[in-house]
Task: inverse folding
């Protein structure tokens, strides 16, 4: 391809500007977090004495260990279950293709564009009547249901692309459906399953609306919900809020940077396939 | 073939069951039809916290150290009682109160406007405790604002809350900046006040620090202060207490709103008043960026610490010298959920807060407010010249003048966030007129009270 | 980003080949297996379907039911017919929320997709460089953090003492500075900036990945024909990334119509309802004003709106491909 020098320079400049716009707010957040608790700093301005203790203070005020623990428990409740259910259903709809599969699939697709706000009101009363309000189940169970449209669509698409010849050959050899599923389809689906797990992990971690409506105690919420509570409580103390927000963001950022390739490709596929 | 079709159909039915079984559960009866029972056990003997370990589940307001300080002191005196405290900003509590009271009932909760909460049966009727503890013997005016009758109007009926201290509002000022512009003593009339505001602006000082951002329209403070200058506080109270036929859109209140709009036009508030939050206001006042601040005595202790000797307080001046004065003044209300687990102990705590010497000292020194309780109750010594002394004295003045009003933001549960706040923000932006402000609030009020 | 809303139905996705008949065995056996297979398949689908039905479909049905009542969540509800819908579609505040959501489409969708398209076109030539790889990671960070965090971060940057004003003052634009989220004229665009910041990275990376798939020889040929960069963009690049654009537009439009998190933390709908959106209004109505009926009617309207906007978009942008 012919690439002129000028094009390269323009391209690089644009990239750098975009990266700056993305990163500067985080830098500002960090610098502000070092100012004296309760003060109103100006934009990015290095404090005379950095107040590193704000992070300790925020860590304690936010009860970070409990928050992390709670988010992990919720993840453990949601992700494996949702992935398993979606895999089974995806195999059923995408490979076995029973009569009426298409109709069932369309019902699932209907849920794809659903804004959570659309059902939050009745969901509140439903969760209350189940007696699980203010427990982690109030987030876990509905989330599994809410993830189904996407997760089933995703896994169905995956199983539908596995060459039928493989399955037919196995059938001829007398393999049972179970064998077919476990020995042939699942090994071929590992990339799809792991991408799905990553997406569901992220969406659970960042789930806000369900957390603030269905669970009052921040220590029983997701990270995003806890951040909301932290803002509700310390929102008037800018440096402390910045320190707390950074702390709450840190686990996500670490996980993202560790698995960034996988994350990016999962998110790209997620929007492409969906 | 027909057999296959039948079987296929059955397969479809199986799949359909999965969906429809669950959906079908959404029955067609109107929601909420199963009647709630709230049989509260009658009191036997003197209410206490007992001897067993009790954890009081409390929901307090962020930024106000008083209730937690009282809780600590209470635990010191009654070691079997500890507190599990959840805190939020007032606006958040306002949003959460109905849900929280109904579905995760706290033993103690900082109450926003309470008439709807009370008429929906979410709050405990405290009259049995009032009788048992002898609250009836206190000055009746203390408890009036916390009584709600069957129709939801306040001032009469069962008692649904208690105060942790009795708050007073008015105008704080920075003494140093005051001297700079030649304000030797607080203004005696509204006209004098206007003069000082203009002088401050001309001297390059933002005259008034006031919050008006987010969900909390803080211009309600100066507006209500102006209402007291222009008109009668009783009429404003009738409106707040939802007396039949009450109207906020009166000629006096319109004059007050116009006066406020005049202040906005004159540039007496900060440019970013519409995004300023409460603590930003405090920070600017304490740092000497503004001469005046409309606020309440809950900040007295704080100001005495942060700017010792540097802050003063005065009541909103009347139109003419010696005219009637008034102030927004109300108990900081705390209630007990109708289904609270430890209602008795919570009531015992509320009584203790009004009668115990230590508790009353904490209320004055940390809360800056006058404690509730008997007229001859214990009062701690207060340093002369302090803001705390000034607000306590102002409280006595208002009490004598019978000029106390509840907060106009407390007329209905959502009138503040959904009506006063947006309209006051629009007034600042020039998108609402003083007439429109009052009309719009009155219309919202009627639709909410009508329910 | 809110989970399933980011996913978009692709009409005819995986457009299934009809199930094939087993190639061997007697008819009876095949019938038998077919039936057994169907039952097994439905047994596998059932758990997912049950969760979906109970926690998604059932609330939708209940929402529809509540929307015909006047109910405060506590006492017995009264039937009011279509009154709640009339309120949603006539009360200025509620209609205003819907209009605000549509205005947000401009900032959440059109701006980031347009920006991403222009930027992607300009950096196409260095898409494989190390800088571009690093940028891919950095630009994705806003996608990974909770929207609440984006809201908190930016409400600080946009405040009167924030970074945005600091930069403006530094370049001598003091007159422009203001409390962006507290000003009637700028509050909604300012919220839009937050959304655009979140979305632009995803759109850029998506579109860029689409561009790398375009056959390089097309560009060579175009250059030999003497086509300028503008013609090149419209006749080669744009059609080549059509599918990616469709995805970006759909995802971001849904995020605009169903916005909640960012606004909840940044403005709470203020000043003066200027940034009130349906999601926030439903939350206020249901849990604060306790107008469960109106909240439910609004929910139904919101769901209908999203479908009404997304389906035609899908047709328009992707239709011819399938």
Result:
């Amino acid at each position: 391809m012919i690439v002129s020098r000028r094009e390269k320079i323009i391209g690089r400049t644009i990239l750098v500007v975009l990266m700056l716009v993305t990163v500067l707010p985080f830098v500002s957040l960090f610098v502000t977090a070092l100012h004296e608790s309760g003060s109103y700093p100006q934009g990015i301005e290095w404090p005379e004495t950095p107040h590193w203790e704000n992070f300790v203070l925020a860590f304690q005020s936010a009860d970070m260990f409990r928050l992390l623990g709670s988010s992990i428990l919720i993840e453990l409740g949601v992700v494996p279950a949702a992935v398993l259910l979606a895999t089974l259903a995806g195999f059923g709809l995408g490979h076995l293709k029973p009569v009426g599969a298409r109709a069932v699939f369309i019902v699932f697709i209907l849920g794809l564009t659903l804004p959570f706000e659309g059902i939050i009101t009745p969901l509140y009363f439903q969760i209350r009547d189940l007696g699980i309000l203010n427990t982690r189940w109030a987030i876990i169970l509905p989330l599994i249901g809410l993830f189904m449209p996407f997760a089933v669509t995703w896994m169905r698409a995956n199983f539908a692309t596995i060459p039928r010849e493989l399955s037919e050959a196995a059938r001829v050899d007398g393999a049972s459906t179970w064998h077919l599923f476990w020995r042939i389809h699942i090994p071929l689906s590992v990339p799809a399953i792991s991408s799905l797990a990553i997406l569901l992990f992220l969406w659970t971690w960042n789930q806000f609306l369900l957390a603030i409506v269905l669970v009052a105690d921040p220590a029983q919420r997701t990270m995003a919900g806890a951040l909301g509570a932290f803002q509700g409580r310390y929102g008037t103390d800018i440096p402390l809020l910045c320190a707390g927000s950074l702390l709450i963001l840190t686990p996500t950022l670490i996980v993202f940077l560790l698995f960034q390739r996988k994350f990016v490709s999962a998110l790209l596929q997620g929007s492409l396939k969906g | 073939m027909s057999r296959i079709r039948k079987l296929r159909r059955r397969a479809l039915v199986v799949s359909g069951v999965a969906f429809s079984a669950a959906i079908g559960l959404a029955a067609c009866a109107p929601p909420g039809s199963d009647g709630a029972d709230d049989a509260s056990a009658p009191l036997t003997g003197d209410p206490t916290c007992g001897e067993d370990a009790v954890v009081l589940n409390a929901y307090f307001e962020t930024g106000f150290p008083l209730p937690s300080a009282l809780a600590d002191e209470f635990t010191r005196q009654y070691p079997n009682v500890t507190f599990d405290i959840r805190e939020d900003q007032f606006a958040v509590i306002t949003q959460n109160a109905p849900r929280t009271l109904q579905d995760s009932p706290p033993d103690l909760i900082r109450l926003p406007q309470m008439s709807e909460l009370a008429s929906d049966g979410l709050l405990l009727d405290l009259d049995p405790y009032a009788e048992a503890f002898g609250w009836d013997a206190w000055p009746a005016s203390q408890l009036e604002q916390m009584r709600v009758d069957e129709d939801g109007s306040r001032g009469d009926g069962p008692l649904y809350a208690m105060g942790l201290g009795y708050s007073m509002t008015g105008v704080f000022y920075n003494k140093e900046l005051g001297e700079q512009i030649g304000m030797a003593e607080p203004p005696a009339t509204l006209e004098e006040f206007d003069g000082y505001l203009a002088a401050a602006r001309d001297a390059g000082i933002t005259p008034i620090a006031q919050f008006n951002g987010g969900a909390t329209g803080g211009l309600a403070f100066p507006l209500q202060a102006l209402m007291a200058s222009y008109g009668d506080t009783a009429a404003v109270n009738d409106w707040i207490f939802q007396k039949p036929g009450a109207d906020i859109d009166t000629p006096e209140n319109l004059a007050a709103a116009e006066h406020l709009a005049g202040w906005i036009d004159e540039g007496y508030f900060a440019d970013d008043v519409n995004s300023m939050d409460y603590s930003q206001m405090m920070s600017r006042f304490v740092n000497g960026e503004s001469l005046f601040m409309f606020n309440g005595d809950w900040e007295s202790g704080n100001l005495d610490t942060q700017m010792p000797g540097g802050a003063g307080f005065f009541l909103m001046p009347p139109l003419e010298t010696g005219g009637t004065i008034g102030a927004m003044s109300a108990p900081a209300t705390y209630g007990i959920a109708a289904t609270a687990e430890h209602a008795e102990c919570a009531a015992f705590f509320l009584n203790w807060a009004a009668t115990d010497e230590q508790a009353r000292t904490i209320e004055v020194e940390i809360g800056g407010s006058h404690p509730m309780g008997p007229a001859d109750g214990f009062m701690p010594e207060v340093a002369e010249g302090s803001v705390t002394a000034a607000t306590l004295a102002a409280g006595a003045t208002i009490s004598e003048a019978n000029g106390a009003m509840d907060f106009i933001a407390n007329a209905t549960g959502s009138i503040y966030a959904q009506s006063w706040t947006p309209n006051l923000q629009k007034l600042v932006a020039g998108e609402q007129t003083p007439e429109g402000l009052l009309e719009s609030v009155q219309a919202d009020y009627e639709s909410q009270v009508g329910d | 980003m809110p989970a399933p809303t980011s996913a978009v139905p692709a009409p005819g996705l995986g457009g299934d080949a009809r199930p094939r008949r087993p190639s061997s065995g007697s008819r009876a056996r095949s019938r038998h297996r077919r039936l057994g297979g169907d039952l097994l398949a439905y047994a596998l689908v059932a758990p997912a379907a049950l969760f979906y039905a109970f926690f998604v479909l059932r609330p939708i049905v209940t929402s529809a039911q509540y929307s015909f009542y006047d109910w405060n969540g506590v006492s017995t509800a009264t039937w009011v017919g279509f009154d709640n819908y009339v309120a949603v579609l006539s009360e200025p505040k509620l209609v205003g929320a819907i209009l605000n959501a549509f205005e947000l489409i401009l900032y959440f969708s059109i701006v980031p997709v347009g920006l991403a398209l222009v930027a992607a076109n300009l950096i196409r030539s260095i898409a494989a460089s190390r800088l571009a790889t690093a940028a891919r990671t950095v630009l994705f960070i806003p996608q990974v953090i909770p929207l609440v965090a984006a809201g908190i971060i930016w409400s600080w940057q946009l405040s009167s003492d924030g970074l945005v004003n600091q930069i403006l003052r530094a370049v001598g634009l003091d007159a422009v500075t203001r409390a962006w989220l507290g000003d009637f004229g700028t509050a909604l665009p300012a919220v839009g900036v937050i959304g655009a910041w979140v979305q632009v990275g995803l759109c850029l990376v998506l579109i860029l990945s689409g561009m790398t798939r375009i056959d390089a020889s097309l560009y060579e040929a175009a250059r030999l024909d003497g086509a300028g960069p503008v013609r090149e963009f419209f006749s080669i690049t744009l059609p080549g990334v059509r599918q990616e654009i469709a995805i970006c537009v759909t995802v971001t439009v849904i995020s605009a119509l169903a916005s909640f998190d960012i606004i909840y933390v940044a403005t709470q709908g203020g000043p003066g309802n200027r940034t009130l959106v349906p999601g926030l209004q439903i939350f206020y109505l249901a849990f604060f004003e306790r107008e469960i009926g109106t909240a439910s009617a609004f929910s139904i309207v919101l769901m209908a709106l999203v479908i009404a906007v997304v389906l035609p978009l899908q047709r328009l942008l992707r239709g011819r491909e399938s």
